[in-house]
Specification:
The protein is of the alpha/beta class. The protein folds into three domains: 211 residues, FAD/NAD(P)-binding domain (3-Layer(bba) Sandwich), CATH 3.50.50.60; 90 residues, no CATH class; 132 residues, Polyamine Oxidase, Chain A, domain 2, CATH 3.90.660. It contains 16 helices and 18 strands. The strands form four sheets. Strands 1, 2, 9, 10, 11, 12 and 18 form a seven-stranded mixed β-sheet that branches. Strands 7-6-14-15-16-13-17 form a seven-stranded mixed β-sheet. Strands 3-4 form a two-stranded antiparallel ribbon. A hairpin with a 4-residue loop joins strand 11 and strand 12. Helix 1 runs parallel beside helix 9, helix 1 runs parallel beside helix 16 and helix 4 packs antiparallel against helix 5.
Length: 504
C-alpha cells in the first residue's frame, strides 16, 4: 500500500526575485499552486504544519491509517485535470477505487436504502416514490452538467460569465432549498432525508441551503463515488509531488505570521521562523477569518474585514471518533448515514438552537472495506462523524464532553451494527470542534467555513480576489462556490484563472 510521505523542507533561502505565494496546503491551496506552476508562474507553497493536507488529516497508529475529511470523491474529473494540464495521467500516481454504494442510509427501525438506490430497497422503503426518485436522479445529472459545473469554476466578478451559467441552473430550480426541491419530487420523509442530507457535507442546512450546493456532493445521476488507494493522505502526497515536479517550492512547519503590504498591494510574506519572501501575487487557503484577523492585523483592511466576517453565520462543526476493530466487516459499506428518529428536529438543534442533540446522526466511514491496506490483516478502520453546532452556537467544554460523546457514538454503532463492539475495539480516539479551532485556525471551530445559506452564497461570499488589495486572492471553503471537495477544486480553478490573467 502506498503510504503518505512527508515532504522534505527545502534548505534554500527565499529568492530575491518576486513570485507567487500560496498560504496553506489544504487541497485548495495545492490545486491552486499546481495550476499556477503549470501556467509558468513560479510559486512557493507555505504551511504551518509539518505536512500538507489542511482539513484532510491523517494519523498512522499501530499499522492503521486513520483519516479525517472527505470519505469519498464524488467526481474525480477536477483532480484528473491537475495532471492533464501538462499532458500527464493521474492514474500513474493515484489509483481510484470505486465506492459502491456511494452511501447506505439506515434508520433505527431497520429501514435501509443504498444510493444509488437498489430497486428492491426503494420499493420496500418508499413504493410510492420510485418514479420520483428516478426524476431526482435525472435532475442531478442534468443540473450538475448544465448548471453547477459551469457556475462553480467561474471567477467572481465576471458578471457576463456568471449570468450565462446561472440561467441553466435556474431552469433546473437550483435556487430552491435542497430539502424543498427533494420534497417536490418524493413524499417519504425517509427518502427526503436520504436525498438532501448531503448538504451537511458542505456545512449547509438542507432546509436553508440552495439545491446548488447539493450538486457538489451528489455524484452525477447518483452514480458511484471513488476512493484513492492508500487513502486521502496518499492523494495529498501525490498532489504535493506533482507540484514539486513542476518546479514549485514548498515550505512546511513554518506558520505565516504577516502579510505585508505597501499601498493596495501585498509585497512580502513573513513566517514565524523569520523567513520572508517578496511576492507579486499572494493567495490564502487559510481560514478566511484567520487570514484577515491575524495575518493582516497591522493593516486597516485586516481588522475591518475580520469584523464583517465574524458577524456572518458560520457552518456547524464536527465531532469525529476514529476507531479500529478486530475482524473484517464486508456487510458495512464504505459510507453510511445512520439517521436518528428525527431529522428536521436534529437540524434545528444544530443550526438554530445550538444544543447537543440526544439523538445524534452519525456519518460512518469504513474505508478499509474498499482499501484493505489501511488496516492490518483481519482488522478494520472506521471514522464516525457527528455534525454538531460550532463553538459560537455551542460553547461547551469539549475536553469534558468529548469522552462522554465518544462512548455514546460507539454505543450507538454497537447497537445498530457491531453488537460486541466493546470486545473488538483495538484503539479509539476523537477530535472535536476545539481541535479544529486550535489546530487549523478554523473560526468558531467551523468545519466548512461560512454557512452556505442564500445570503452567503456565490458573489455574497468573500471574493476570489480581495476588493481592496489588488494582488491578494482567496481559495478554499470560505469563498465561491463553497465547501466540499468538488467545490474547493472548482474554486481553485477560478482563482487560478484570475491570478494567471493578472500575471500576464
Amino acid at each position: 500500500m502506498a503510504r503518505r510521505k512527508t515532504p522534505d523542507q527545502p534548505a534554500t533561502p527565499a529568492p530575491a526575485q518576486p513570485r507567487a505565494c500560496v498560504i496553506g496546503a489544504g487541497i485548495g491551496g495545492l490545486a491552486l499552486a499546481i495550476r499556477l506552476q503549470a501556467a509558468g508562474q513560479p510559486t512557493v507553497l507555505v504551511d504551518a504544519k509539518p505536512q500538507p493536507g489542511g482539513m484532510i488529516r491523517t494519523w498512522q497508529r499501530d499499522g492503521f491509517v486513520f483519516e479525517e475529511g472527505p470519505a469519498a470523491i464524488s467526481d474525480p474529473t477536477p483532480l484528473r485535470e491537475l495532471w492533464s494540464l501538462t499532458g500527464e495521467d493521474m492514474a500513474d500516481a493515484v489509483n481510484l477505487l470505486p465506492v459502491a454504494p456511494a452511501w447506505r442510509c439506515s434508520w433505527p427501525d431497520g429501514g435501509v436504502l443504498d444510493l444509488p438506490a437498489d430497486p428492491t430497497q426503494l420499493a420496500r422503503l418508499a413504493p410510492e416514490d420510485v418514479a420520483g426518485y428516478e426524476d431526482f436522479a435525472e435532475w442531478c445529472a442534468e443540473a450538475r452538467s448544465e448548471g453547477w459545473q459551469r457556475l462553480a469554476d467561474q471567477p467572481q466578478g465576471r458578471i457576463r460569465s456568471l449570468l450565462d451559467s446561472v440561467g441553466p441552473l435556474f431552469r433546473h430550480q437550483g435556487w430552491r432549498s435542497a430539502a424543498g426541491l427533494v420534497a417536490s419530487q418524493v413524499k417519504s420523509e425517509k427518502l427526503r432525508a436520504a436525498l438532501s442530507f448531503q448538504t451537511l457535507l458542505s456545512g449547509g442546512n438542507p432546509r436553508a441551503t440552495l439545491a446548488f450546493n447539493l450538486l457538489g456532493q451528489v455524484p452525477a445521476g447518483l452514480g458511484p463515488a471513488f476512493w484513492p488507494e492508500g487513502g486521502m493522505g496518499h492523494l495529498i502526497a501525490a498532489l504535493t509531488e506533482r507540484f514539486v515536479k513542476l518546479g514549485g517550492e514548498v515550505r512546511w512547519h513554518d506558520p505565516v505570521v504577516r502579510i505585508h503590504t505597501v499601498g493596495n498591494r501585498v509585497t512580502e510574506i513573513e513566517c514565524a521562523s523569520g523567513w520572508r519572501s517578496k511576492v507579486t501575487l499572494a493567495a490564502s487557503n487559510a481560514d478566511v477569518v484567520h487570514t484577515y484577523r491575524d495575518l493582516m492585523r497591522d493593516i486597516q483592511r485586516g481588522p475591518a474585514m475580520a469584523r464583517k466576517l465574524t458577524d456572518k453565520s458560520f457552518s456547524p462543526s464536527a465531532f469525529t471518533v476514529h476507531f479500529a476493530l478486530e475482524g473484517t466487516w464486508p456487510g458495512i459499506p464504505h459510507r453510511m448515514a445512520l439517521f436518528g428518529p428525527r431529522f428536521k428536529g436534529l437540524l434545528d438543534d444544530i443550526f438554530v438552537h445550538g444544543v447537543l442533540p440526544q439523538d445524534m446522526m452519525i456519518l460512518l466511514s469504513h474505508p478499509s472495506v474498499t482499501d484493505p491496506g489501511l488496516a492490518p490483516p483481519g482488522r478494520s478502520v472506521f471514522a464516525a462523524t457527528v455534525p454538531v453546532a460550532n463553538l459560537v452556537k455551542l460553547p461547551i467544554d469539549w475536553e469534558t464532553i468529548g469522552p462522554v460523546l465518544q462512548r455514546r457514538v460507539l454505543g450507538e454503532i454497537g447497537r445498530r451494527l457491531v453488537p460486541d463492539i466493546e470486545d473488538r475495539i483495538i484503539t479509539a480516539f476523537h477530535t472535536t470542534p476545539r481541535d479544529l479551532a486550535l489546530d487549523l485556525n478554523a473560526w468558531a471551530g467551523a468545519g466548512w467555513s461560512l454557512e452556505p445559506r442564500p445570503s452567503q452564497s456565490g458573489p455574497l461570499r468573500p471574493h476570489h480576489r480581495d476588493n481592496k488589495l489588488a494582488n491578494l486572492y482567496l481559495v478554499g471553503a470560505g469563498t465561491h462556490p463553497g465547501a466540499g471537495l468538488a467545490a474547493i477544486l472548482a474554486g481553485a480553478k477560478a482563482t487560478a484563472q484570475l491570478m494567471v490573467e493578472t500575471k500576464q
